[in-house]
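pasting for the record
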Amino acid sequence: METEHKDCSYCAEGELLAQFGIKICELPMSKLILFKEQSHPGRVIVACKKHVDDITELTQEERAQYIEDINRTAVCIHKAFRPDKINFGAYGDTMHHLHVHVVPKYKDEYEWGGVFAMNPHRTEPSEEELQKVIDTIKANL
């Protein structure tokens, strides 16, 4: 599986990834990443381990496993954070690496009934608070 692209945040990890996320763990076909901006508590990214631009570039088996990873993540987020709904976003206009934003939405909270902002810069928790979110996610995976 092709995984190394030095200019890709999801492949290189390190400082590139740290600009917006923290790697939580690896799933069979993906990397689970906490989105540091937490206007939607529990927001994560499921990034494919294989460096591809589009889901159509995966084999049938890879695609099935990637979708299973996304589903496992959504089940975890439902258990851990009890959102009213989860939005899924796979855009990639500027980040050419297959990834899906898993965004918990809450009826009485920010952006209910609309499309989530990519990076609203509203809520940026401390490292300790982010670690608590990561621990909650890991406990529910």
